[in-house]
Design goal:
Blueprint (H helix, E strand, L loop, with lengths): L2 H10 L20 H6 L9 E2 L4 E7 L2 H11 L4 H18 L5 E4 L4 H7 L3 H13 L7 E3 L11 H8 L3 E3 L12 E9 L3 H13 L4 E9 L3
Parallel strand pairs: 2-7, 3-6, 6-7
Antiparallel strand pairs: 1-2, 4-5
Helix pairs in contact: 3-4, 4-6
Bound molecules: zinc ion.
Zinc ion binds next to helix 2.
Length: 219
């Protein structure tokens, strides 16, 4: 079902539940059984360690999960966003790690202006509410980034240099010795996350930095 047919159905039957991945009618709140079966959760809860941070990924990026992230980012389907934040919420609870603050990898501000929202900001704000953990806007992103998907690993590293900056309105001293969890959507090579966490670590007091992405690509 296309985006417009879904919008028309929403108008006629506002309480009709549609699967956040395939948009078929369902009895459950968010997702049909078939799409649910196709989601591969990272059930090992394994942690990837980098110099500046630890990384966790809730799921793997293919099939249903790819659809849901696409429906959220491109179609601005906030039910998909709500479902993703529920997945992140339960993953964080199962990880059982202490978190003092949440933050996120911001989208390029030209894109926010053009498309009207920042998906990681939305997810972090929603998570902050459901987990009762404060969130801070630690960074902002400027300039015209080339689409990362079209670049190889070395080009990706160059491409993101000098795009992210610390938000000067945040009182960084409050982060001393705190545990901060950064939320991002998809991890491929970790080049953006390495850059972002490097900037945060250089600019702030000693802190424990972790990252949680919704999904990790299989490459
Ligand atoms: Zn479905």
């Amino acid at each position: 079902m296309g985006k417009w047919s879904k919008k028309i159905l929403d108008l006629i039957y506002p309480n009709l539940n549609l699967c956040v991945s395939c948009y078929e009618k369902i009895d459950d709140k968010f997702i049909c059984h078939e799409c649910m079966r196709d989601i591969k959760f990272n059930e090992d809860f394994n942690r990837v360690d980098f110099n500046d941070f630890h990384a966790y990924n809730a799921c793997y990026y293919f099939g249903t999960m790819k659809n849901i992230i696409y429906n959220f980012k491109i179609h601005k389907d906030f039910r998909s966003g709500e479902y993703l934040s529920i997945i992140l919420n339960s993953y964080i609870k199962k990880l059982n790690i202490k978190i003092d603050y949440l933050s996120y990898v911001p989208r390029d501000r030209n894109k926010i202006k053009k498309e009207g929202f920042d998906q990681s900001h939305y997810l972090t704000k929603t998570l902050s509410k459901s987990l009762d953990i404060p969130y801070i806007k630690l960074l902002y992103c400027i300039g015209k980034k080339h689409d990362q998907k079209k670049l190889d690993i070395s080009e990706r590293t160059v491409n993101i240099k000098d795009k992210f900056f610390i938000n000067k309105h945040v009182d960084l001293s409050m982060l001393r010795n705190k545990k901060v969890l950064i939320i991002d959507d998809v991890a491929t090579t970790y080049s953006t996350l390495n850059e972002v966490c490097g900037i945060i670590k250089k600019s702030t007091f000693e802190m424990d930095l972790s990252v949680l992405t919704i999904a990790k690509t299989l490459i």
